[in-house]
Amino acid sequence: QVQLVESGGGSVQAGGSLRLSCAAFGYTYSNNCVGWFRQAPGKEREGVARIDTGFGSIYYADSVRGRFTISQDDAKNTVYLQMNGLKPEDTAMYYCAAHGGNRCRLRADEYNYWGQGTQVTVSS
Question: Residue 36: its pLDDT value, please?
């Protein structure tokens, strides 16, 4: 059974940092696409960042580029999202997701596996 387990969320003040982790169980991230998404109350789910763990290519949404960094640790079968310079508008539930398809994009409908989410709250 595949499980993606996020951790690292919390409450911080604007300008602070958090590092989210997404550990996979029953699934290997190698040569797969792993993405981070977020959803705030009353808003649509938004793709934040994704990494092609095989080729190492990375893409960020404009809203987080330059502040967030996605990375992988193959030994730990874990993908991270380092979030710096957090803003109140970053407040949301953050989800990691993965799929083994050929194209690695930030399209939620292409991801097969999802974690349960971790809450990030940024106060001004």
Answer: 98
